[in-house]
Amino acid sequence: MTRISAKLLLATVLATAGTAARADDLYIICNLRPPITAADVRDLFVGEKQFAEAVKLVPIDNSAAQSLFLERVLKMTAAKYSVTWIKKSFRDGINPPVVAGSDAEAVATVRRTPGACSYVTTTPEANLLVIAKL
Amino acid sequence: MGIKGNPRVVRVRSWPCVLLVACLGHSLAAAAADTESDQIAELRKELDQSMQMIRELSQKVHDLEARAAQQPATAAAAPRTTPATPAVAQTPTAPAPAAPPTAVAAAAPAPPLAPATPDTASRLIQLEQTVSQMAANAWQRAEDTGMPMHGFADVGLGTHNPEFPQYQGANIAELDFFLTPRLGARTRALFELNFEVGADSTVAVDLERAQIGYQFSDSATIWVGRFHTPYGFYNTAFHHGQWIAIALRRPRFIEFEDHGGIMPAHTVGLWLTGSERLGDMKVTYDAYLGNSQRIYNGILDMNNAGVPRGSAIVGGNLGLLPGGVLDGLKVGVDALQTRIEDQDPTPAAFPQVSPYFTQVKSYGAYAVYDTDRWEDIAELHFFDNTDLTGHTGSHHSDAGFIQMGYRAGRYTPYARYERGSFQQSDPYFAAQINGNSYDREALGLRFDIDLSSALKMELAKTSFTDRIIRTYGEALVQYAIRF
């Protein structure tokens, strides 16, 4: 009985873990050649990097994946992110990223916008440039 | 209570059970997660179909344009014998399954060439316009929100007005509008229009910042117009909206000119600024050249319209952000030089020479530690001024402050100490209403009501130490918002 319980527990953990890993993948996608590096992503989304060679970069926030992105990439809270952009905008006259409402909208915006970069939690299609998987 | 039978059989039977439970568990959990995913997938599919339709229409326009271009040659080689059928009608309009653009182009063979008629050409133009419109609208949906306008405002209560201590009770401070129009990839603009209460208790309108800039790269932007003079850290980090700062007010000596500041907070001229990343480190720089300021009615004025005698302010600021384990830290140095003309009647204490000219040289250093939790700022400025009329010689003064704030959720307690030691024999300070030496200690608390409004409370003690000797305490409350 003890062995069966342990295996049941193991099975449950495996099942949950599998689902969690699937839901927690974060892909940084760009419409950009040459691409920026994963190390540039943080600067891009706080307005510190605005050009890749001659191409104007266009960060696109994705509200469906923003909390994950802030936690893993920018390592700041939503409030701090908001204040960072208010200060940045107030100091440098730069507008914060536009916000897509879903992975699909983020993908569509990136596809049609040269220099655009965003982040999604669903596996991007093959014709999109994935800068990093986190 | 134990399980009867052959243990090996039980073990063998238990593994399929485990796998079954695992699969079921995974499926159930996945199904729950997929409910939202399905909705997203459905939206995504619809969007993909729309995009596919745009691609197909674009392809049709391209094909029709190609055929239209070939029409003269085709017409010359084979005269028309039958009325042309509109090309658009021949092509299918139903959306095809999603595929990459290249696949669409390859999979959709061009229909047989048909001679174009004026009607075809007209429809072709109409189709092209429709496609262009669709593409433009699709872009605007996500990108164009017009001209962003933001604003800040604050009101308060206190035993004194925080900036004009001769008043007490309730006060309105300012209503600040901030505009950042979208102009293109490299041109930037920034306008700040402020309705503020002045020392005479009346409301005045001031174009606090009006700057238009061209961004060459991440490491170089040139601004022209009126901007905040980039000395130290505070003057360019915090502006007229008090919501943006932790503390209830700016340090007294770097207040804005018409609110008691004794440094040239604004400059009208050229400003080159940028940053460069060097590994984990980042270097920031500012270099500027502008109209020299003047003193008028005991207040510094930035000479918005120009200078009558061609004198200038020139300065720079160099900052370093070490990054890595010191992420959040910034240290820097700055310097400026200008020639200030005092256009007021010469004070009796000074030789009767008018106008008075003072060469102002200021050097400073600063350190900032800004993280999720901490916002600590320290600045120190030295003044090495020379009376250009030759009557009072050279003078040395200094001013500085240190402020520490700790963000604990919605509460941010802070403490600040500031001090200004200004030689009263220096015409530059003597001519300014607020050019007296002082020190101030303050303890405060900021409470963020939500992401757009904050309540701040401060207890402070200010001592004037030379021109007049006086100490007064303050209990201040401020309600600051952004929108």
Structure description:
The complex is a heterodimer of chains A (134) and B (483). Chain A has 134 residues and is an alpha/beta fold. Chain A has a single domain (25-133), classed as D-Maltodextrin-Binding Protein, domain 2 (3-Layer(aba) Sandwich). Chain A contains 5 helices and 7 strands. Chain A has helices at residues 2-24, 41-45, 66-74, 78-92, 103-112, and strands spanning 27-30, 51-52, 55-56, 58-62, 98-100, 116-120, 129-133. In chain A, the strands form 2 sheets. In chain A, strands 5-4-6-1-7 form a 5-stranded mixed β-sheet. The longest helix of chain A has 23 residues, at 2-24. The termini of chain A are far apart. Chain B is built from 6 helices and 18 strands. Chain B has helices spanning 7-77, 87-90, 101-107, 118-143, 234-237, 427-430, and strands at residues 149-158, 169-179, 187-197, 203-217, 220-228, 266-278, 281-291, 294-296, 299-301, 312-321, 329-342, 356-370, 374-387, 394-406, 411-421, 438-448, 453-465, 469-482. Chain B starts with 6 loop residues before the first helix and ends with a strand. Mean pLDDT of chain B is 79; it is low at 1-37, 72-116 and 129-144. At the A-B interface, helix 1, helix 4 and helix 5 of A face helix 1, helix 4, strand 3 and strand 4 of B.
